[in-house]
Design goal:
Length: 260
Amino acid sequence: MLKADKSFWSNPPWGDGKQKYRLGLIPIAKEEWLNRKIGDSLFKHKKDFLDNNYQEVIAVTQSSLEAQNILEEYLRVDKREYPDLIADMSLVIQDDLCLIKSNGDQELIAASVCSPSYWNVQSKIGRPLREIHKPVTTLNEKIGDRIETFIRQAPIMKPFSRQNWLIHGDTNRFYTREETLPKTDPSDWFIRSEKETLCRFHEDYSLFTINVVFQPLSLIHNHPEQKKNLITSINTLDAEEIDYFGGEKKVRLLQKYLLP
């Protein structure tokens, strides 16, 4: 049973609810950048994939070797077990890791993603950020240019953070495709939040991290203001965002469950 996370509910990822997809990056101290030590359960989840389904969660390009070695200065690995350094580094921290070129087309050059939210790391490796975000056209239109400019101009070793969110029928971490409509009642659904950081740690390279956490949706009723803002956010979704979110029927079920 998941416990209520006070910090989550004091500052939920949908904010004031005015817009689901926003850049929303805020600066954080360097000490808060890579400080999330991995627990036993998440370590087991990652290691099971690395040992048994390596190609499903790890993808690298030859041009990423320098970037991986530089990143290891910040995520020290005591013992190498896997062909790619980013795989070993991913066991040091809760977060999934995505290495991106800071300049040019800003390709994804290496990744360890054991908790994907509707994407497949093998289909994205080597591709520019703009192509990676292409499936949700309106996402590119709303924040695509700003993401590219931000990464290109970001100060070195100044990390930033943001939160994204979806609503799922379970706490399964591995979703390479959109979840089908849950057969359960929304009272049994979960908010799936991605706590993300972005840091240009070298002139040529940036690290994007993703830490997935869950909270029971039912807890929303204990937070009237946050519920009102969540309703507002869901109501602002456009047609493409609704499809990505899970479809019109899922949205209608949520609206019915959340409204007084």
